[in-house]
């Protein structure tokens, strides 16, 4: 059990605003904040590349390599730290659900396929020739796996209480209930 | 007798509460700081775990092939809901600033409606319905504490002193009520007691049995309006917060609500009363409902600055106060664990070398003094107003 945390005075009843959430997330865990921020960027840029690619012209390369590619590298680093944080935290394991675990499995596959798509020259051939040979048959399908798995994740995370449902719930609350109004609205 | 239907549990959750279940950051910060979870190590008392289970129950209700909630989980969650002091420490660390106190209260309403309330709480509700107080003591004994004092009752006055059930009926606390009366009279205040004060209704809110709360509220409001008072003073933070949340809807801005610590601080600032300084080492336990949930933090400290030469702070204080274990009717649900939490607080006062541990809440006072006796501690637990009254010049 960790020591009690000193938090700055907050006003009760609380207000739910994007500023409060951002401050709260940064105070609680910078890794958590970065994880969510980078994931949102990756999902949005991924959807832009896939759905609006033909209309993006020269911008497509920038979005694909910088906003999706390099941000993806950052995400991998943050994701590793995030997973290690969960693995070492009793309280986080207690509050995370099975659907979160499924989410993490999705992210791992998306990371692996993403790296394979991005690193076209497969730099791991010299270091891990056996692994390179083993995965080479799926090389032609990695992009298809990466994209289709994203859509599958989008669908699943809309039906289970994690991922996108969590994000949409936050967005809805910020937009509609930020001043604690309409408390009596039905489900 | 109410019967339990797992499918109807948490049915009272509207859109905001339901969405909050999904929006929860799952960071576990609330788990770390919960005083009850620290004591029990039972995951059903951990705020984050309760949210996880409640979310699963709601999700099953919402999804077409969810399968419905199971009775065993509902019972465990409901038990966990009552094993909570409603101290709001979970809210204080929530990165999303989610009003968890409101959530637990709403969930308790559903538990109550499904026949899952704690027996001791049901007895309190019965007592309230019979005698308008939680102790089932005769209503006409409510002002017995004032016997021998020249106390104005039901008169036209500027200020109403709302005494509350604990201070009116508990022998230990009657001197605190007298002390408050003495201070107000010493300040030259034109004040009065209500002719027919009844419980403010907060035990009903805490237990989830809010059906009859409205009657109590209306009875008190009518009494208050008959006095023409512009200010109501409370010694109990529970009553104070209840008035701020519920009564203010009826009273509006016509009446100012103040806690005794705020009033005494204002008297000292205005020079209406003067205190001689004590040499005793005094410390102060912030009641959760007063400090964290209503923001009265500096006022009692301002008073202590003028009341003692030796004031020490407890660890886990002010906004981040650690609960005494007596809040949210937890003491009625699990006395042993409630007192175990309070003993830790007494231990902290001992470690700081305090001779007197004061608090400005009758519930905290009862819990801490009981724990001090159990612990055979040399720290003397005192009520805030009593300490001030003893030091009046």
SSE topology:
The complex is a heterodimer of chains A (about 190) and B (about 400).
Chain A: H1 18-28, H2 30-56, H3 59-87, H4 90-95, H5 98-118, H6 129-135, H7 142-159, H8 163-177
Chain B: H1 15-23, H2 29-33, H3 35-40, H4 47-62, H5 71-82, H6 89-93, H7 100-113, H8 119-131, E1 159-162, H9 165-169, H10 174-186, E2 191-192, H11 202-207, H12 213-227, E3 231-234, H13 237-251, E4 256-259, H14 260-270, E5 278-285, H15 288-291, H16 298-307, E6 308-313, H17 330-333, H18 335-351, E7 356-359, H19 362-375, E8 380-383, H20 384-390
Parallel strand pairs in B: 1-2, 1-3, 3-4, 5-6, 5-7, 7-8
Helix pairs in contact in B: 4-5, 10-20, 14-16, 18-19
What does it look like?
The complex is a heterodimer of chains A (187) and B (393). With 187 residues, chain A is mainly α. Chain A has a single domain (18-186), classed as Fumarate Reductase Cytochrome B subunit. Chain A contains 8 helices and no strands. In chain A, helix 1 crosses helix 2 (30-56), helix 2 packs antiparallel against helix 3 and helix 3 (59-87) crosses helix 5. Chain A is globular. Chain B has 3 domains: 6-114, Fumarate Reductase Iron-sulfur Protein, Chain B, domain 2; 120-265, 3-Layer(aba) Sandwich (Rossmann fold), CATH 3.40.50; 274-390, Rossmann fold (3-Layer(aba) Sandwich). Chain B is built from 20 helices and 8 strands. Chain B has helices at 15-23, 29-33, 35-40, 47-62, 71-82, 89-93, 100-113, 119-131, 165-169, 174-186, 202-207, 213-227, 237-251, 260-270, 288-291, 298-307, 330-333, 335-351, 362-375, 384-390; strands spanning 159-162, 191-192, 231-234, 256-259, 278-285, 308-313, 356-359, 380-383. In chain B, the strands form 2 sheets. Chain B has a 4-stranded parallel β-sheet, with helices on both faces. Chain B has a 4-stranded parallel β-sheet with strand order 6-5-7-8, sandwiched between helices. In chain B, helix 13 links the parallel strand 3 and strand 4 (256-259). In chain B, helix 4 runs antiparallel to helix 5 and helix 14 packs across helix 16 (298-307). Chain B is globular and about 70 Å long. The chains are: A mainly alpha (187), B alpha/beta (393). The interface between A and B is large, with 49 and 53 residues.
């Amino acid at each position: 059990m960790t020591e009690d945390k000193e938090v700055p005075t907050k006003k009760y009843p609380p207000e739910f605003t994007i500023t409060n959430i951002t401050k709260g997330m940064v105070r609680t865990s910078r890794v958590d904040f970065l994880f969510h921020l980078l994931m949102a960027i990756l999902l949005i840029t991924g959807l832009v590349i896939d759905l609006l690619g033909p209309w993006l012209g020269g911008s497509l390369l920038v979005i694909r390599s910088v906003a999706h590619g390099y941000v993806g590298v950052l995400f991998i680093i943050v994701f590793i730290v995030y997973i290690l944080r969960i693995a070492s935290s009793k309280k986080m394991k207690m509050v995370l659900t099975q659907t979160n675990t499924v989410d993490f499995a999705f992210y791992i596959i998306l990371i692996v396929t993403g790296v394979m798509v991005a690193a076209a020259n497969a730099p791991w051939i010299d270091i891990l020739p056996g692994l390179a040979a083993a995965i080479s048959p799926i090389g032609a399908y990695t992009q298809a796996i990466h994209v289709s798995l994203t859509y599958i994740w989008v669908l699943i995370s809309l039906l289970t209480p994690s991922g996108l449902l969590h994000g949409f719930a936050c967005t809805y609350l910020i937009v509609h209930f930020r001043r604690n109004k309409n408390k009596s609205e039905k489900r | 007798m109410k019967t339990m239907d797992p499918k109807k549990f948490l049915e009272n959750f509207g859109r905001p509460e339901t969405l909050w279940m999904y929006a929860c950051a799952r960071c576990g910060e609330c788990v770390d700081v919960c005083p009850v979870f620290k004591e029990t190590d039972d995951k059903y008392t951990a705020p984050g775990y309760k949210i996880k289970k409640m979310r699963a129950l709601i999700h099953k209700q919402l999804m077409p092939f969810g399968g419905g909630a199971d009775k065993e989980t509902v019972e465990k969650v409901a038990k966990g809901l009552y094993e909570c002091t409603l101290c709001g420490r979970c809210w204080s660390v929530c990165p999303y600033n989610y009003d968890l106190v409101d959530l637990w209260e709403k969930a308790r309403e559903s538990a109550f409606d499904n026949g899952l309330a704690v027996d001791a709480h049901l007895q309190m509700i019965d007592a309230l319905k019979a005698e308008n107080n939680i102790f089932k003591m005769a209503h006409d004994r409510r002002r017995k504490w004032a016997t021998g004092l020249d106390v104005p009752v039901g008169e036209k006055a500027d200020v109403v002193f709302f005494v509350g059930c604990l201070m009116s009926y508990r022998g230990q606390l009657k001197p605190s009520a007298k002390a408050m009366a003495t201070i107000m009279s010493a300040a030259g205040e034109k004040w009065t007691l209500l002719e027919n004060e009844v419980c403010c209704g907060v035990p009903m809110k805490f237990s989830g049995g809010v059906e009859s709360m409205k009657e109590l509220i209306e009875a008190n409001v009518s009494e208050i309006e008959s006095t023409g008072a512009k200010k109501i003073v409370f010694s109990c933070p529970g009553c104070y917060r209840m008035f701020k949340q519920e009564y203010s809807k009826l009273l509006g801005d016509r009446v100012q609500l103040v806690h005794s610590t705020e009033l005494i601080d204002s008297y000292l600032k205005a020079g209406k009363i003067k205190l001689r300084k004590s040499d005793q080492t005094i410390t102060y336990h912030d009641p959760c409902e007063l400090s964290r949930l209503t923001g009265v933090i500096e006022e009692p400290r301002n008073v202590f600055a003028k009341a003692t030469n030796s004031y020490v702070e407890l660890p886990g204080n002010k906004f981040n106060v650690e609960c005494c274990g007596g809040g949210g009717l937890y003491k009625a649900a699990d006395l042993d664990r409630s007192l175990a939490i309070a003993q830790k607080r007494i231990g902290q006062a001992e470690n700081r070398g305090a001779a007197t541990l004061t608090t400005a809440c009758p519930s905290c006072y009862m819990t801490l003094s009981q724990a001090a006796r159990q612990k055979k501690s040399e720290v003397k637990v005192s009520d805030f107003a009593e300490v001030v009254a003893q030091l009046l010049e």
